[in-house]
TrEMBL record:
InterPro entries: FlhG (IPR033875), MinD_FleN (IPR025501), P-loop_NTPase (IPR027417), ParA/MinD_ATPase (IPR050625), YlxH/NBP35 (IPR033756). PANTHER family: CELLULOSE BIOSYNTHESIS PROTEIN BCSQ-RELATED, SEPTUM SITE-DETERMINING PROTEIN MIND HOMOLOG, CHLOROPLASTIC-RELATED. This is Flagellar biosynthesis protein FlhG. It comes from the Bacteria. It holds the Pfam family ParA. It comes from Caldalkalibacillus horti. Keywords: ATP-binding, Cell projection, Cilium, Flagellum, Nucleotide-binding.
């Protein structure tokens, strides 16, 4: 009797799993940004994407750092094509998606995206029409933005479902992260922002940095901001960068990899909110063009 019940339970679980797999995927757009440059956005984006993949999620990274290639260099994979090729040669978006390790998908920025801001509206519309084909194909699209708060980065931030602001415990990085928060929270659109404190020399230092930012944001901007996690300063990160391999692959059990895997699990455990997906991202992104003057 007990065995039979156990078997029924197993079959039920299997059925639930199968029906979940058949459901269309909702694609969530995550923008990763920072105030100060060089705080670890691209390394975070790439390894966070891999950590999500290892949790059975489908992920695409889109390198939207204007003018500077980041992700393909960190992966050591020279891209065959980038965004500009797509527009100039009228290619479908599937033709510019590159395959990275462990099933990771990426779209290379290169210098192509720099060009993009000077394109006519018609071409931009066509580009985004193509992006909408990714709806349901992946669970997450991660946008890795460039240093500083350009108009375009702000548009990516305001249109995303989730925003991750990366900072380090350095006072200059904290001040610049706060400047980003202030800039974003004074816009009409209030995205869902969380902090990641990178390069912490101790957990305590990470916690204190997060606390400082939380307090000033509460006091001066009247907003509550959450901390997604802390990543230690780990010499293996730089070693992996030099090898052009993500640290999660090159050093799977190093401190930074362990912290990042935990952080990705914590992210997936968050309650689902604000999930507008690609279509809402595109609508907001296009609308903000005239408002912010991109
Ligand atoms: N957790 C870490 N521990 C040690 N070093 C790190 C860590 N994270 C990043 N770094 C170092 O910081 C460098 C810059 O990282 P990364 O390129 O990811 O920053 P970024 O914010 O994307 O820079 P940019 O603003 O130029 O796009 C890396 O090459 C690495 O040497
Ligand atoms: Mg970068």
């Amino acid at each position: 009797m007990k065995d039979q019940a156990e078997q029924l339970r197993k079959q039920l679980l299997q059925l639930q799993q199968q029906s979940k797999e058949l459901e269309p995927r909702k694609t969530k757009v995550i923008t990763v940004c920072s105030g100060k440059g060089g705080v670890g956005k691209s390394n975070f984006s790439l390894n966070f994407a891999l950590a999500l993949l290892r949790q059975q999620k489908k992920v695409l990274i889109f390198d939207v750092d204007l003018g500077l290639a980041n992700i393909d260099v960190l992966l050591g994979i020279p891209p065959r094509r980038n965004m500009l090729h797509m527009i100039e040669q009228d290619l479908p978006i599937t033709d510019i998606i590159e395959e990275g390790p462990e099933g990771l998908k990426f779209i290379a920025g290169g210098s192509g995206f720099n060009h993009l801001i000077h394109l006519e509206q018609q071409k931009i519309d066509r580009l985004f029409e193509e992006l909408s084909h990714l709806h349901g194909q992946v669970d997450y699209i991660i946008l890795d933005t460039g240093a500083g708060l350009s108009n375009e980065s702000l548009r990516f931030i305001l249109a995303a479902d989730d925003v991750i602001v990366v900072t380090t415990p350095e006072p200059t990085a904290i001040t610049d992260a706060y400047a980003v928060l202030k800039m974003v929270y004074t816009q009409q659109q209030k995205p869902n922002i969380r902090l990641v404190i990178n390069r912490c020399s101790s957990h305590k230092e990470g916690r204190e940095t997060g606390q400082k930012l939380k307090l000033v944001t509460r006091r001066f901007l009247n907003q509550e901001i959450g901390v997604l996690g802390y990543i230690p300063d780990d010499p293996n990160v730089m070693k992996a960068v030099k090898k052009q391999k993500p640290f999660l692959i090159q050093f799977p059990s190093t401190d930074a990899s362990v912290a990042l895997s935990n952080l990705a699990r914590a992210y997936l455990d968050l309650p689902i909110e604000n999930q507008g997906g690609i279509k809402s991202f595109l609508t907001k992104f296009l609308k903000s063009r005239s408002k912010i003057g991109g």
